[in-house]
Amino acid sequence: MVLVEANRRDFLRWLAAAGAGLATAGIAPAVFAQEAAAAGSEPVVALGATLVDGTDGPPLPDSAVVLVGDRIAWTGPAAHLPPLTGVRTVDGRGRYLVPGLWDLHTHGLDLEAIFPPLYLANGVTGIREMWGYTENRAARDKIVRGELAGPRVVMGSSIIDGPVSMLQPPVTKVATAADGRAAVRTALAEGADFVKVYSYLGAEAFAAIADECRRAGLPVAGHWPYRVPQPVASDAGQRSFEHLFGVPVYTSAHRDEFLRTLAATPFDPANPRSFFVMARELDRRATEAYSPWRAHEFFARLVGNETRLTPTMVVNKVMCSPADTFAHDPRLKYIPRDVRDGWAEQVRIRTPVTPEEIAQQAAYFHAQVELAGAAHRAGVPLLAGTDCLNPYVFPGFSLHDELAHLVDAGLSPRRALQVATRDAAAFLGRSATAGTISPGKVADLVLLDANPLSDIRAVRRIDTVVAAGRVYGRAALDRLLADVEAATSAGANARSVGLPVHSCC
């Protein structure tokens, strides 16, 4: 034990001398090493992997990444390391080390026994939770305190919608500018990281929300509010639009006709979903008359405002497919029975049935993938999000599917990977601490058995996940999955009647 402790101190002394990268990150290497030694932090070295660090640089074979506590302390060629006697190592030989993944559109964090461990088991070390309420704020706080294993969480506000809404409580309904400003103040008091706006929000209330958020330094994200022209919402500071809603209309030769129809149709309190169904059909029809010059005009506006699009193609794929397409998905064993039953009912009433509908919706999904690619080529930043808790959209697993859809849209595997790592961190204002593998950044890493730059599907082949410095080898990841399956079978985390059970937003 004394020898091991001495070797650890020697290694930390070497690290202090070699820590130019830490100094570049604004961290004094000697102080870092002293604090690590005092805290008893065990250095961990990921050794021998090809480093795919999330930047535009080339892959670096036979690399080493040194972790101390929850930070990356050093990166470089494995040959430059001192002897590692007494230092814990992770064998990366023949493998590929990438930054931890982010899913930037999620729901259901409060399913504590199910969702948080599924993220980690799939290399998702950070999420943007798109609907803040008491239960999932409590789950986030447990993760922060170390009481619950799970990803880093960027937490949204309560969803803010108009007085007519498709959603049930805990949605926040606002009718006036004063209501909107009050909702933003509540979001701040509840510790929201951003404000989530929704589809039926009125123009006056939206303008007040955007102004109040601007004053408070709080980002705005969410659905396109149909009563606000989408370019105007972008101008006002909405930082992301989810699901491609409205993008087909604004890139269509029939844009003005479709916008007039939307403007002339009221929201029906007796059947609030009817407007959304109509708007989705207009989006579908709009893709049949794509206009490159309309697209150029619209995308340029988004680029100028640095507004992102989150295509969530995995959920779009489900909604465009016949109801039984995913009924036997093996990943269902990780989903609670009440949620599974709700999913089956949702797709039964909302997905195509007749041969004509099936063909139309298949073409519509293909057009959405093409539209995401067109936006990317025009320079519109994309976000990788899944909308899990919707039917057959699985925590963690479905982010791998979303990355494959991004490649189908025309992104290279490297760019798709960067969307879920470097670009995600940049969007969240965390570039200094996350998103790439370099000294001083958080120790969120995924070790893969195959090269994701050759085939993005390699992100499914996970050997080891490091989340906030905690190392989960393959055996530990398999235990996480087994524990989730057991908890699901035992009926854990049946959802409160006060929360959305079947799907989300």
> Average pLDDT, to the nearest integer?
94
Number of helices: 19
- Helicity, as a percent range: 40-55%
User: Could you give a short account of the major beta sheet?
Assistant: 8 strands, mixed
β-strand amount: 15-25%
| Number of DSSP E strands | 17
Q: Based on CA inertia axes, which overall geometry fits?
A: globular
Q: Low-confidence runs (pLDDT<50, min 5 residues)?
A: none
End-to-end C-alpha gap = 53 Å
Rounded to an integer in angstroms, the radius of gyration calculated over CA atoms is 23 Å
Which structural class do the helices and strands define?
Answer: alpha/beta
Question: In words, what does this structure look like?
Answer:
The protein has 505 residues and is an alpha/beta fold. It is built from 19 helices and 17 strands. A hairpin with a 2-residue loop joins strand 16 and strand 17 (470-472). Helix 6 (177-189) runs parallel beside helix 7 (203-216) and helix 13 packs antiparallel against helix 15 (355-377). The longest helix is centred in the C-terminal third of the chain and has 23 residues, at 355-377. It is globular and about 75 Å long. The protein starts with a helix and ends in a 16-residue tail after the last helix. The model has no long low-confidence stretch (mean pLDDT 94).
